[in-house]
Amino acid sequence: MSHLTHLNERGEASMVDVTAKEVTDRSARAQSSVTMSADAFALLSEGAHRKGDVLAVARIAGIQAAKRTADLIPLCHPLALTKVAVEFELCPEDHRVDISAFCRLAGRTGVEMEALTSASVAALTIYDMCKAVDPAMVIGPTRLAEKTGGKRGHWQLADAGIQE
């Protein structure tokens, strides 16, 4: 198998050829968060936001984003995802919503970008729906938390020496 690169033989940007890579079960989990004012958090957590169920809309947006990652990120492979899940944890002590996005497939390339895109778009959707109450919300950090499959096998955030 040749060295994987986004450059073709002429040095131009191109999609990596993964034809020779082995098909394996692959998954990735990404995390993000949105920290907001007490007023915005109360409306969101009580389901009293005038725009509706913020987390339900953010969940759907995150799922749709994972499925459309190849349309958003240049040179990403279009993937037939077999599972996408977006979960939220409310952290009232910090007025924060933690987001976890999980993607899975059997394929020749990983789903890290799909999980990261999913978590990012879910966070942006929460921001969009709550910005009238708190335009100073903070999104992030957004990061890969875990991946399985492929040449490197299982990796998780603690393996990189990064504390959660």
UniProtKB/TrEMBL annotation:
InterPro entries: MoaC (IPR023045), MoaC_bact/euk (IPR047594), MoaC_sf (IPR036522), MoCo_biosynth_MoaA/MoaC (IPR050105), Mopterin_CF_biosynth-C_dom (IPR002820). CDD domains: MoaC_PE (cd01420). Pathway: Cofactor biosynthesis; molybdopterin biosynthesis. Its EC number is 4.6.1.17. Substrate binds at residues 75-77, 113-114. It is an enzyme of class 4 (lyase). GO terms for molecular function: cyclic pyranopterin monophosphate synthase activity. Keywords: Lyase, Molybdenum cofactor biosynthesis. Residues 15-150 form the Molybdopterin cofactor biosynthesis C (MoaC) domain. Pfam families: MoaC. It catalyses: (8S)-3',8-cyclo-7,8-dihydroguanosine 5'-triphosphate = cyclic pyranopterin phosphate + diphosphate. It comes from the Bacteria. The active site is at residue 128. GO terms for biological process: Mo-molybdopterin cofactor biosynthetic process. The keyword Membrane does not apply. Homohexamer; trimer of dimers. NCBIfam families: moaC, PRK09364.1. Catalyzes the conversion of (8S)-3',8-cyclo-7,8-dihydroguanosine 5'-triphosphate to cyclic pyranopterin monophosphate (cPMP). Belongs to the MoaC family. This is Cyclic pyranopterin monophosphate synthase. It comes from Microbulbifer yueqingensis. The lineage of its organism: Bacteria, Pseudomonadati, Pseudomonadota, Gammaproteobacteria, Cellvibrionales.
